[in-house]
Amino acid sequence: MKFSHFLHFAKFGIKTILFRKKEPILGTVIVTDKCNLKCKHCSVNNITAVVHPYDQIIKEMKMLYDMGVRILFFCGGETFLWEEGGHTLRDLVIEAKQMGFLIVNVVTNGTYPINLPEANLILLSLDGDRERHNAIRGDTYDRIMENIKNATANNICFYMAINQINKNAVRDVCETAKELPNVKAVSFNFHTPYPDTADLALSKEEKAECCRTIAEMKRGGAPVFNLVSAFPYLINNSFPTPCHQCVVVENGKISTCGRCIDVPGLCEKCGYFFVAEYTLLFKGKLKIVFEMLKTYLKYI
Ligand SMILES: C[S@@+](CC[C@H](N)C(=O)[O-])C[C@H]1O[C@@H](n2cnc3c(N)ncnc32)[C@H](O)[C@@H]1O
Ligand code: SF4
Ligand code: SF4
Predict the structure, then answer these.
(1) If you average pLDDT over every residue of the chain, what do you get?
(2) Other C-beta atoms lying within 10 Å of the C-beta of residue 267
(3) Residue ranges of the domains in the chain?
(4) For the chain, what percent of residues have pLDDT higher than 70?
C-alpha cells in the first residue's frame, strides 16, 4: 500500500473513532445477481438475473466515491458474467482506479479465466477440498484450480464460507493457499443463516473449533487475512452490527453494511468476519487496530 493511501485510512480511522462518525469507507457494487452456479448455501443468486448497465454502475461508483468510500468491491451473482456494451469487468476495475478508489477488489467463484491484474485482491470462493467444495458448488474444483494456475497476477485471496458441509475443511483451504503461487492469502466467513439456509449454520462450539484451527494455521505461517483478536466476538456473535462504515449498492438501492440488512433478525447471527473486524476497529479496540495494521500491510 502506498504511504499516502495509508495516511488517508489512518486519518479516517482516527476521526471515526474519536468523533464516533458513521461515514462509510468501504463500498460494494453488485454488478449482477446472475450466476452460473447454484451453491447450496447461497440465497442471492439469480433472483432477477439482470446484468446492470455500464452507465448505471459508473453512476453508482461515483456516488460511493462522493460519499467518501475508498475501498471498492465488485460482487454478484458471478462478477465475471458482467459484460455490457463492449465493456468488461476488467474495464470496471480500471475505471475505479482512475476514479480514485485506493483499493479495488473483486469477488468471484473462479470458474472463468482470471485476468484482473489491476485489482488489489480477487476474492475467490473456495469452500474446501475437492470433495466438500464440489458438494457445495457443483463440479467446479478442478476448473477453478486450472484458472488459478493460469491467472495473470498473484492477487488471489481464497474466500471460504464455513458451514455444516465444510466445517472440517478449514485446514485444507489454508494448505492449498500456501501451495499456490498466485494465491497470496485466505479469508474466512461463517455461514450467515438466511431463512432458506438456516440448517447450514454452525453452533458456538463449532465456530470455536474453526477459530482454533484458523489461529493455529495463522501461527504456523498460513497467509490468513483475518484477525485472531476478533474471533471471541465472532464465536459469541457479540460484535456490534451493522457496520456503518460499509455500504452496498444494488440496482440503484443503497444499504448500510450488506444487502442482508432487510432480513429480519439476521444481523444478530451475522457470520461475516469483515463486519466484526471493522465494527471493532472503529470502536477503537486496540488489539484489533494493531493486528489489522500488521495483517493489511502484509497483503495489500
Ligand atoms: C454471493 S457470492 C458472489 C460472488 C461469487 N459468485 C462467489 O461465489 O464468490 C460472495 C461470497 O458470499 C459467500 N456467501 C454466500 N452466501 C453466504 C452466506 N449465507 N453466509 C456467508 N457467506 C455467504 C459466497 O460463498 C461467496 O464467497
Ligand atoms: S457462485 Fe456465488 S453468487 Fe453464485 S450461487 Fe455460488 S455463492 Fe451464490
Ligand atoms: S451485520 Fe447484518 S447487514 Fe451486515 S453483513 Fe451481517 S447480516 Fe448483513
Answers:
(1) 97
(2) 19
(3) 3-299
(4) 100
Closest CA to 119 of 101, 132, 131: 101
Q: Is the CB of 197 under 6 A from ligand 1?
A: yes
| Ligand 1 atom having least distance to the Cα of 197 | 19
Ligand 2 centroid distance, CA of 109 (Å)? 7
Task: Check pLDDT > 80 for residue 15.
Answer: yes
How far is the C-alpha of 209 from the C-alpha of 198, rounded, in Å? 20
Q: Is 279 in the pocket of ligand 3 (CB under 6 A)?
A: no
Q: Look up the CATH number of domain 3-299.
A: 3.20.20.70
State if residue 257 touches ligand 3 by the CB under 6 angstroms criterion: yes
Q: Are 68 and 8 in contact (CB under 8 A)?
A: no
Say what the pLDDT of residue 297 is. Answer: 85
Average pLDDT over residues 37-46: 98
Indicate the pTM of the whole model. 0.98
